[in-house]
TrEMBL record:
Alphabetical UniProt keywords: DNA-binding, Transcription, Transcription regulation
Name of one Pfam family that matches: HTH_1
Species the sequence originates in: Phytobacter palmae
HTH lysR-type domain mapped to chain residues: 8-65
Name this polypeptide is given: LysR substrate-binding domain-containing protein
Matching PANTHER family: HTH-TYPE TRANSCRIPTIONAL REGULATOR LRHA-RELATED (PTHR30579:SF7), TRANSCRIPTIONAL REGULATOR (PTHR30579)
Family under the similarity heading: Belongs to the LysR transcriptional regulatory family.
SUPFAM superfamilies: Periplasmic binding protein-like II, Winged helix' DNA-binding domain
Lineage: Bacteria, Pseudomonadati, Pseudomonadota, Gammaproteobacteria, Enterobacterales
């Protein structure tokens, strides 16, 4: 009689996938409402079932082995099918459309993972996504063109929302730009900024004014990609968070005064056809993704 193939443990697969997505099994344990030891035990069980090492430590983070990479794709598909079956039995499969917006800083770093995970949970739901600056997203919310948006917290927010966390603002520059030399020579600090109105531009200039540091805006961009391109070209320094910062740039360190933190808000639009459950799920995914970037 032919031996039946081993059935992989779905709970162990979920811990495996969540651990990699969160970057650590401690964060995965919190997200799954389990102890860290329980999640680690599930990974060991899965490795025993697969008869292969799936994960290795790389510094403070986790990395997949070759076998782990092979299993990851199957694991996500198995979990998605399992979750879809559960929702179908409960009558919870979502249909229709949801419109989400995200500030430019989060577009490339967070959007792909969030949308991919959400799509796996709700394959029947049409997603319309928009990446833009704060003011444009707020206008879209007011015009009922978006159901929800992930924004930077403004000084006097025009809409109520949920504060998901804080990001440290940083002075970001090309490594070859000699900021200390410029300051020692009494040269104005060259700034690369968005056009006004801009939260970070206001924070940057106010911070420098308080410290008595002369500045001048040498480059103005309409897009975040333009900001990064100008800083990479060594034209000047900018004020952003580390979210989405190109790898060839660096934080200026203690040379300049600290500009403090900036809050991240999840803001909902008007109630409409978008399902409340879909909004809640998207909010949870955004909050979980932000754990890895703050």
């Amino acid at each position: 009689m032919e031996k039946l193939p081993l059935t992989l443990d779905l709970d162990a697969l979920r811990s495996f996938v969540t651990g990699i997505e969160c970057g650590s099994f401690a964060l995965a344990a919190s997200r799954l409402c389990r102890s860290t030891s329980a999640v680690s035990a599930q990974l060991k069980k899965l490795e025993h079932q697969c008869d292969a090492e799936l994960v290795v430590k790389q510094g403070r983070h986790l990395a997949l082995t070759r076998n782990g990479e092979i299993l990851m794709g199957y694991a996500r598909r198995l979990l998605a099918l399992n979750d879809e079956a559960q929702r179908a039995l409960k009558g919870e499969l979502l249909q229709g459309e949801i419109r989400i917006g995200m500030q430019e800083d989060f577009g490339e770093s967070l959007m792909p993972g969030i949308l991919g995970e959400f799509r796996r949970h709700h394959p029947g739901l049409r997603i319309i996504a928009r990446v833009d600056r704060n003011q444009a997203l707020l206008s879209a919310l007011n015009d009922n063109a978006l159901d929800m948006a992930l924004l930077w917290q403004s000084e006097n927010p025009p809409r109520e929302g949920k504060l998901l966390g804080q990001c440290q603002l940083e002075w970001i520059q090309h490594p070859e730009l000699e900021i200390s030399t410029l300051l020692a020579q009494g040269e104005p600090l060259p700034l690369v900024m968005f056009e006004n109105p801009c939260l970070m531009r206001s924070r940057a200039t106010a911070c420098l004014d308080r410290a008595g540091i002369a500045w001048r805006v040498v480059f103005v961009s309409h897009s975040l990609s333009g900001i990064w391109a100008a800083v990479q070209a060594g034209l000047g320094i900018t004020l952003r968070t580390r979210v989405g910062m190109p790898g060839n740039l660096r934080v200026a360190g203690g040379i300049l005064p600290s500009p403090g933190n900036l809050g991240i808000m999840l803001v909902h639009g008007q109630e409409n056809a978008a399902d409340t459950g879909a909004r809640e799920k998207l909010g949870q995914l955004m909050e979980a993704a932000l754990l890895n970037v703050r």
